[in-house]
């Protein structure tokens, strides 16, 4: 070991020792503690969501049962879906990533530790808000997809949907913030030698997944904002009775919703890609293909959403194209399944609990994937989309797939997180009850669906066989509940007197196993040299190391500046948000309507002048940055002041335009032009306003002498944000005003 | 007229198109001294695509009958033919004349791919402004300008990704972002065209039936103007993005395939030696 230790690369000076006490957990910015907080919080919500599921299964155990009222059943399936997706699957994967990514890339912490704490604390806030609806007149009862117009005030009369929208907005912001953080961490904090092509597959998939999150979540956020405006300002984005479009809600929702499926699957693929090689004692088969197929899945996932809407009646051309892309996405997924199977082929497999869960994942995910392909065939989709066949399908993907992978990851990394092994004896019990319970609960639902049993319905008629199959399903669900209890018992018992783990109990090969279990506050004092994808194998087998994974340093080994990465990722996600608002404006303003119109309300020339002011402010802030870099701080301050002035003039112009429109008696709910106009320009104005506040803070910092030491990242970041706001306005101006001039 | 008769009769033997195709193949072959390899295959594919775009029934249909056929032409000219031709060119790091100061600015522009991106994505948007779209069909010179400009913009767009001078190419990750953002640009336009309640090219709404094939198109093929526009939007949305995705996977393969500059290849362990027996479990 001593000769191996001499080859280790020392990192910078370590941080202070760990603080103690309960408050230190609340105030922590340590990624490991935040990761543990994520895992514990999701465990609580997992139990809650599970109880909701069991209540539904009791109701469905017998035909014409009266255990739950129809309304209570609607609330249960809405809460179950929302809880499991937004409060369990997404945060548990983000939590694991939070704990593991810095360890796996040899970093001290995440790129933005405080932002990390914020992302976590938004999770309990959102979860609390969602569940508070139960005390405030009833939980939402419109499904996790909240289809309009059912979710509009005329049909969803309680405040349940309002809590749903607010909770999801908060959770969405948290997820986006966490993903920006992960992107910045992976791009900027990798240990020396850890090039992009040497990344562990879990990290690679988290990296790709984070892009999915920042691109997909804003679509949901925009749709939710519009729904909220509909419900509270009396507008009609999605209310067909007043010219809105319920189908647009579905487009927006599924433009988020289908990438979301992969947001919940890709990190699980990452876990499996770590667990299977370690317990098959072979490196992953076809690393490049697994990595590239991840990119393929991510890209294709944005082009398949309309297959959730075949039953809407989008027309033959739409159905045709989306059927094709939906089938296409099976190819990269198949490549992955093949690579995992080929890794196990001829390996010396150790059937630990983690490996058992991984193998079960492989089989169940394949079943779920195959039943998924059947939905790409449009006529089959029409037949079964409203039935339990679909329920069976997505539970095979999400429970049989993602959750089994999470369990595998838990058994695999628990020793690293706590320093103690989970009991293998209880683990095997946990596994077999989960396997039998899950398949009993959900396999029969395929048959029920094909027989025509409708989902989202509180009961069913006493048809031959239905009662029996449903009873089997309910028994399976309860067995699954028992399995979760075993897992909880295993965690508690092992925390108390589990076998001490040691640094590397599984003889694994990635960096997180190079440090102690649990890792110290600073994670590492030194990291081993990294020349391949399995640094710990190379360290232990210096006589037979892995072939070096090369790559030009400029292409693979680059380290970017973290503030730059952070702000650019943030602007990307903002861009998608505005894109949705702009599309909504175009969608509703392409045909004549009653009431105010752009031509009668807007004055392109006057707004054009204010637009020039805003564009000029982009120029001044660019000049200001150059002056600052040249060390001319007084010129910098003047130019900054000029920027603020120009921005204020623009806001003033917008306010005058608003007042003029208000005076002519037009409000946001007058018609769809007014609604889309005020929403789009209002959100832009809000961004300008936030930008002005940021500029004022910069100004204050400049007078306090903060930038004299040459640390101008803040100026650069705010500058980029300001350019972005201007660029968005340029598009908005063309879409709304310039069209009137042509 | 039935479909078969139409497909046989609707070829447009434009001498200019044939001349360009023949000249293209002859010059290329002559420069290669009539030796053939994979790059010749790319050239042939590109030339055949060019011929099909401008001489096959696609062109006849695009000429005032079907918006979707026009869109197909558009995609071929902008996204298929230029990369095929670029792939057929011999690669070199960078010719010397671009390293001297007089031509530096050109090199600089190419290396900062903003111009290429805006030409590639902007070309798509520009020619679908309703005025220009209609003008291109009613005026033959605007029509020719459209063809040439689309080809040129296609070359400008693909140059930073697969251009022959490797020093001017984007790094793989930057290239992936370049292509993905272009995909978003054309997806947005595709979505707008697919769902727009007004017509993009009003000429296609009431085609002048010069050849008497309107009954064939609308009754037998079922392509009413509304469906036709939807199909056109979808072509721009889905297959166009798939072409960009192919580019992305090509970059990925090139990236993972190359050995890089810090490679020392030790003797490769066989699969057997990599399998480790479990220790004491």
The main pleated sheet of chain B reads as: none
* Overall average pLDDT of chain B: 82
Please work out how many helical segments of chain A DSSP would assign: 25
Proportion of helical residues of chain B: 55-70%
Q: What global shape of chain A is seen?
A: globular
Report on the architecture of this protein.
The complex is a heterodimer of chains A (about 750) and B (about 280). By secondary structure, chain A is an all-alpha fold. Chain A is about 70% helix and about 0% strand. A two-stranded antiparallel sheet of chain A has the order 1-2. The model of chain A is unreliable at about 1-5 (pLDDT under 50). With about 280 residues, chain B is mainly α. Chain B contains 13 helices and no strands. Chain B is globular and about 60 Å long.
SSE map:
The complex is a heterodimer of chains A (742) and B (281).
Chain A: H1 2-6, E1 9-10, H2 22-26, H3 31-60, H4 70-104, H5 113-132, H6 160-188, H7 201-233, H8 246-263, H9 266-280, H10 287-300, H11 316-328, H12 330-344, H13 353-374, H14 378-384, H15 388-418, H16 424-451, H17 466-497, E2 526-527, H18 535-540, H19 553-556, H20 562-588, H21 598-601, H22 604-629, H23 633-663, H24 672-703, H25 713-741
Antiparallel strand pairs in A: 1-2
Helix pairs in contact in A: 3-4, 3-5, 3-17, 4-5, 4-6, 4-15, 5-6, 6-7, 6-20, 7-8, 7-9, 7-10, 7-20, 9-12, 9-13, 9-15, 10-12, 12-13, 13-15, 13-16, 15-16, 16-17, 20-24, 20-25, 22-23, 22-25, 23-24, 24-25
Chain B: H1 3-9, H2 15-31, H3 38-55, H4 57-62, H5 67-88, H6 104-111, H7 114-126, H8 130-138, H9 140-162, H10 172-195, H11 214-220, H12 225-257, H13 271-274
């Amino acid at each position: 070991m001593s000769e191996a230790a001499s080859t280790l690369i020392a990192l910078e000076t370590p941080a202070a020792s760990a603080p103690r006490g309960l408050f230190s957990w609340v105030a922590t910015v340590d990624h490991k503690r935040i990761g543990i907080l994520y895992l514990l919080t999701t465990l609580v919500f997992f139990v809650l969501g599970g109880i909701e599921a069991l209540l539904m299964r009791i109701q469905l155990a017998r035909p014409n049962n009266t255990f739950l009222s129809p309304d209570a059943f609607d609330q249960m399936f809405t809460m179950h879906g929302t809880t499991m997706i937004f409060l369990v699957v997404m945060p548990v994967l983000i939590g694991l990533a939070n704990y593991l990514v810095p360890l796996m890339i040899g970093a001290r912490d995440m790129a933005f530790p405080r932002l990390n704490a914020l992302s976590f604390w938004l999770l309990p806030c959102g979860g609390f808000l969602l569940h508070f609806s139960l005390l405030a007149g009833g939980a939402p009862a419109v499904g996790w997809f909240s289809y309009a117009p059912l979710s509009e005030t005329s049909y969803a009369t309680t405040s349940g949907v309002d809590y749903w929208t607010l909770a999801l907005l908060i959770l969405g912001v948290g997820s986006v913030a966490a993903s920006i953080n992960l992107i910045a961490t992976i791009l900027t904090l990798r240990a020396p030698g850890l090039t992009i092509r040497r990344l562990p597959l879990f990290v690679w998939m988290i990296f790709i997944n984070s892009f999915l999150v920042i691109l997909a979540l804003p679509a949901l956020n925009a749709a939710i904002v519009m729904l909220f405006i509909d419900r509270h300002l009396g507008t009609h984005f999605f209310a067909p009775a007043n010219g809105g479009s319920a189908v647009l809600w579905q487009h927006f929702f599924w433009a988020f919703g289908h990438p979301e499926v992969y947001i919940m699957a890709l990190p699980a693929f990452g876990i499996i890609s770590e667990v299977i090689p370690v317990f098959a004692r072979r490196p992953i088969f076809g690393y490049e293909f697994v990595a590239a197929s991840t990119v393929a899945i991510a890209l294709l996932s944005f082009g398949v959403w309309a297959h959730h809407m075949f039953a809407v009646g989008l027309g033959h051309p739409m159905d045709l194209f989306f059927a094709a892309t939906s089938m296409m996405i099976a190819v990269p997924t198949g490549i992955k399944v093949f690579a995992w199977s080929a890794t196990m082929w001829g390996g010396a497999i150790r059937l630990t609990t983690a490996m058992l869960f991984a193998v079960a994942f492989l089989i169940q995910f394949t079943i779920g994937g195959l039943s998924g392909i059947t939905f790409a065939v449009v006529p089959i989709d029409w037949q079964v989309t409203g039935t339990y066949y679909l329920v069976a399908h997505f539970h095979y993907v999400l429970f049989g797939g993602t959750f089994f992978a999470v369990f595998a990851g838990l058994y695999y990394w628990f020793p690293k997180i706590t320093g103690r092994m989970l009991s293998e004896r209880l683990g095997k019990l946990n596994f077999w009850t989960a396997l039998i319970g899950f398949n009993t609960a959900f396999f029969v639902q395929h048959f029920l669906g094909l027989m025509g049993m409708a989902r989202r319905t509180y009961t069913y008629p006493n048809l031959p066989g239905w009662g029996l199959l449903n009873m089997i399903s309910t028994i399976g669900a309860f067995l699954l509940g028992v399995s979760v209890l075993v897992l909880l018992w295993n965690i508690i018992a092992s925390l108390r007197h589990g076998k001490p783990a040691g640094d590397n109990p599984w003889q694994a090969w990635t960096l997180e196993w190079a440090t102690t279990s649990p890792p110290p506050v600073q994670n590492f004092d030194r990291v081993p040299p990294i020349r391949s994808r399995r640094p710990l194998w190379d360290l232990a087998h210096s006589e037979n190391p892995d072939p070096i994974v090369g790559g030009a340093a400029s292409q693979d080994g680059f380290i970017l500046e973290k503030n730059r990465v952070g702000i650019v990722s943030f602007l990307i996600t903002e861009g998608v948000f505005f894109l949705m608002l702009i599309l909504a404006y175009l969608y509703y303003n392409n045909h004549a309507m009653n009431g105010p119109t752009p031509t009668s309300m807007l004055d392109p020339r006057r707004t054009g002048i204010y637009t020039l002011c805003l564009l000029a402010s982009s120029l001044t802030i660019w000049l200001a940055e150059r002056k600052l870099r040249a060390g001319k701080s007084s010129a910098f301050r003047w130019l900054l002041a000029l920027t603020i002035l120009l921005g204020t003039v623009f806001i003033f112009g917008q306010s005058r335009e608003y007042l003029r429109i208000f005076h002519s008696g037009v409000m946001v709910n007058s018609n769809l032009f007014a609604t889309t106009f005020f929403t789009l320009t209002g959100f832009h104005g809000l961004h300008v306003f936030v930008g002005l506040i940021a500029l004022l803070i910069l100004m204050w910092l400049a007078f306090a002498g903060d930038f004299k030491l040459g640390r101008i990242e803040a100026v650069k970041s705010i500058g980029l944000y300001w350019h972005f706001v201007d660029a968005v306005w340029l598009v908005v101006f063309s879409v709304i005003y310039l069209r009137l001039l042509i | 007229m039935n479909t078969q008769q139409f497909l046989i009769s609707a070829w447009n033997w434009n001498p200019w198109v044939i001349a360009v195709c023949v000249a293209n193949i002859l010059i290329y072959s002559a420069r290669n001294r009539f030796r053939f390899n994979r790059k010749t295959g790319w050239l042939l594919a590109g030339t055949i695509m060019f011929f099909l775009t401008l001489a096959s029934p696609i062109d006849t249909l695009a000429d005032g009958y079907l918006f979707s056929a026009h869109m197909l032409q558009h995609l071929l000219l902008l996204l298929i033919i230029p990369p095929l031709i670029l792939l057929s060119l011999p690669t070199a790091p960078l010719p010397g004349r671009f390293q001297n100061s007089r031509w530096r600015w050109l090199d600089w522009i190419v290396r900062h791919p903003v111009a290429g991106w805006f030409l590639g994505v902007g070309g798509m948007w520009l020619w679908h402004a309703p005025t220009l779209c209609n003008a291109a069909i009613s005026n033959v010179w605007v029509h020719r300008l459209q063809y040439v400009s689309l080809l040129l913009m296609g070359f400008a767009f693909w140059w930073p990704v697969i251009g022959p001078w490797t020093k001017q190419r984007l790094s793989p990750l930057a290239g992936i972002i370049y292509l993905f953002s272009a995909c978003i640009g054309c997806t947005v336009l595709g979505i707008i065209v697919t769902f727009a309640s007004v017509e993009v090219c009003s000429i296609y709404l009431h085609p002048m039936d010069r050849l008497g094939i309107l009954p064939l198109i609308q009754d037998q093929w079922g392509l009413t103007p509304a469906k036709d526009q939807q199909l056109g939007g979808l072509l721009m949305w889905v297959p166009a993005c798939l072409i960009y995705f192919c580019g992305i996977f090509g970059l990925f393969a090139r990236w993972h395939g190359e050995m890089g500059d810090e490679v020392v290849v030790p003797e490769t362990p066989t699969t057997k030696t990599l399998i480790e027996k479990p220790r004491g479990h």
